[in-house]
Inverse folding.
């Protein structure tokens, strides 16, 4: 029986958290397919060792394609190597993360292999040996259960939805040197600029503190930064489109239909009305908190916990309480 | 400089979505349809590119039904020069769409082929890079701004935690996100002129869809939430609930 392949994303030589999610998602569907889980990581020499840990999450084999030219993501190089691996091992399914990288890479691999792709899926099921995927459509206003009529079935999975689960497997690392020809690539990475002192990206955060027009002025973001810092590791700032359009915050922070899709453990919406296009980007968050002075604001319809009140009074207290909680441990 | 833009007709983002009979598609009755917002950014980017070059044509291409003519006319009213309607039924299988587009675009002299980063109906985010791969053209996704320099194009794209600058050899495929491309409104003159611009219609070369919708459903209901309290005094209880009940802090 054909196995399941999980693409393991790395950045700067470190295997990213989403790689565990891909492997765990693969491990979840593998039994129904009578399959083993393989992981594939691409990077500079040494990346295989960095990925060995994926065995803990269910990878029987970790293939490591090591080449200096693969240190950074390059669509042409990566797509060719992944497609080659799939062709040579004949997988039943291939799982990518629905990250910027995964959403750039997976469609190209699909085109190279001539198989369809289900993007940004939030659920995977195997019934009678066939895989179906659940994916949000119409900006999250509906969910489509889709079937892929080709082998392998390709999917990208929404980050933070498939939680990593430990399920130890052999995790044998098999390193190889793929044939890559950087000389033929038509795309050149000129530079990569980090946004502000290595701040965590909103799409990667486990807690998102999101500010809207109710914040009144960009200088008031100090209040949100204080809350983010009190929450600590894994927390990042987000913004509604209204404040991005006003130039108060960078577009990279925008959550919603024309911004990023996030599914953190905790989403705190402050001074955000909850327009349908905003909900599109955050409604699959695990726990949603809203702070708004208007008790009829639509954001309260999706919030698990709401506080009705003036955010300028609520935020400082909330930050204090979080600090007190963290101090207790 | 010639630029092609692939656009799609989708429900307005404000539209209420009702699931149709058989739960395999939405019920389009009463739904307002528009050009997908990202495709509007792409049209804007194409028009600016042509304007900067001082010559060339902007061609719109869509795969869709008869009603997609309206979407094409909207783009022509913004300032595009010509439009092509590939008559057919788009499905959730982006590769089938990409094949039809690639068949139309193969051999085109256009220097740039632009897409929206994603269509605001299926949100698949795949047709652009798939089409590029089928055509053997370089492609950058999620481009917020770009500049043509000689025989290459320099693109800025947002990635997690920063911005990437990529240089692609022309001809190239770019998928466009909002970035600097706030779309212009069509002027009355533009709307009048659009009626006379060439709109060619032909059959789309779509193969079978190999990604089928088994069932469409409304989002799982979130467990009903509750108002923890009014004003700052609710903060302590909120934090307690987040720790003890939601396990979120
Ligand atoms: C095609 C399209 C795409 C879009 N994409 C996005 C997107 O990606 N992301 C997005 O966010 N939006 C998007 N929008 C815009 C969206 O429709 C809303 O306009 C936007 O989300 C509103 O932002 P907001 O909630 O910050 O502002 P508002 O709607 O103005 O809400 C401000 C809220 O703050 C509250 N408030 C004010 N003062 C206080 C106070 N002192 N204390 C507590 N509460 C206070 C108010 O009660 C109000 O509810 C899109 C729109 C369209 C048409
Ligand atoms: N039926 C279609 N006709 C023309 N272009 C399309 C069509 N479907 C998708 N596209 C293009 O591909 C982009 C991405 O779509 P998708 O992969 O479906 O999210 C869209 O923004 C359009 O530019």
């Amino acid at each position: 029986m054909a196995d399941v392949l999980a693409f393991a994303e790395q950045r700067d030589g470190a295997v990213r958290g989403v790689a565990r999610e891909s492997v765990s998602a693969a491990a979840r569907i593998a039994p129904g397919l009578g399959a083993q889980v393989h992981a594939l990581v691409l990077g500079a020499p040494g990346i295989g060792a960095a990925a060995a840990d994926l065995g803990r999450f269910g990878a029987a084999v970790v293939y490591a394609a090591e080449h200096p030219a693969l240190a950074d993501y390059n669509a042409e190089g990566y797509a060719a190597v992944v497609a080659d691996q799939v062709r040579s091992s004949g997988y039943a399914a291939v799982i990518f993360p629905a990250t910027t990288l995964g959403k750039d890479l997976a469609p190209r691999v699909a085109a190279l292999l001539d198989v369809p792709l289900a993007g940004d899926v939030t659920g995977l099921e195997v019934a009678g040996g066939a895989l179906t995927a659940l994916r949000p459509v119409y900006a999250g206003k509906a969910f489509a259960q889709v079937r892929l009529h080709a082998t392998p079935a390709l999917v990208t999975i929404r980050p933070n939805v498939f939680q990593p689960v430990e399920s130890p497997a052999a995790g044998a690392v098999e390193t190889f040197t793929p044939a890559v020809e950087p000389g033929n690539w038509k795309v050149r990475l000129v530079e990569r600029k980090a946004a502000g002192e290595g701040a965590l990206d909103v799409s990667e955060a486990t807690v998102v503190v999101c500010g809207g027009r109710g914040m009144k002025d960009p200088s008031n973001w100090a209040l949100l930064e204080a809350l983010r810092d009190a929450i600590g590791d894994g927390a990042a700032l987000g913004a509604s489109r209204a404040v991005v359009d006003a130039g108060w915050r960078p577009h990279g922070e925008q959550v919603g239909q024309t911004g990023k899709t996030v599914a953190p453990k905790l989403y705190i919406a402050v001074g955000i009305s909850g327009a349908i296009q905003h909900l599109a980007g955050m409604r699959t968050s695990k726990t949603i908190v809203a702070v708004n002075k208007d008790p009829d604001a639509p954001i309260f319809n999706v919030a698990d916990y709401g506080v009705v009140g003036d955010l300028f009074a609520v935020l400082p207290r909330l930050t204090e309480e979080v600090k007190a909680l963290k101090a207790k441990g | 400089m010639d630029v092609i833009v692939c656009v799609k007709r989708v429900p307005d983002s404000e539209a209420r979505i009702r699931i149709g009979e058989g739960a395999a598609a939405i019920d389009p009755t009463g739904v307002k349809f528009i050009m997908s917002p990202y495709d509007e950014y792409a049209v804007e980017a194409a028009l600016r590119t042509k304007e900067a070059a001082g010559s060339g044509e902007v061609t719109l291409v869509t795969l869709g039904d008869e009603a997609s003519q309206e979407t094409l006319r909207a783009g022509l009213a913004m300032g595009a020069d010509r439009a092509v309607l590939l008559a057919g039924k788009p499905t959730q299988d982006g590769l089938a769409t990409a094949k039809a587009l690639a068949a139309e675009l193969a051999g085109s002299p256009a220097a740039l082929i632009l897409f929206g980063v994603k269509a605001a109906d299926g949100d698949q985010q795949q047709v652009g890079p798939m089409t590029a791969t089928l055509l053997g053209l370089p492609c950058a996704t999620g481009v917020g701004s770009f500049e043509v320099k000689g025989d290459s194009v320099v693109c800025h794209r947002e990635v997690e935690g920063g911005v990437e600058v990529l240089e692609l050899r022309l001809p190239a495929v770019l998928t466009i996100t909002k970035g600097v491309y706030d779309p212009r409104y069509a002027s009355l003159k533009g709307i009048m002129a659009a009626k006379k611009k060439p709109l060619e219609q032909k059959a789309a070369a779509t193969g079978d869809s190999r990604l089928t919708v088994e069932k469409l459903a409304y989002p799982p209901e979130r467990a009903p939430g509750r108002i923890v309290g009014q004003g700052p005094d609710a903060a302590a209880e909120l934090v307690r609930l987040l720790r003890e009940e939601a396990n979120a802090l």
The first helix of chain B runs from residue 37 to 53. The mean pLDDT of chain B is 96.
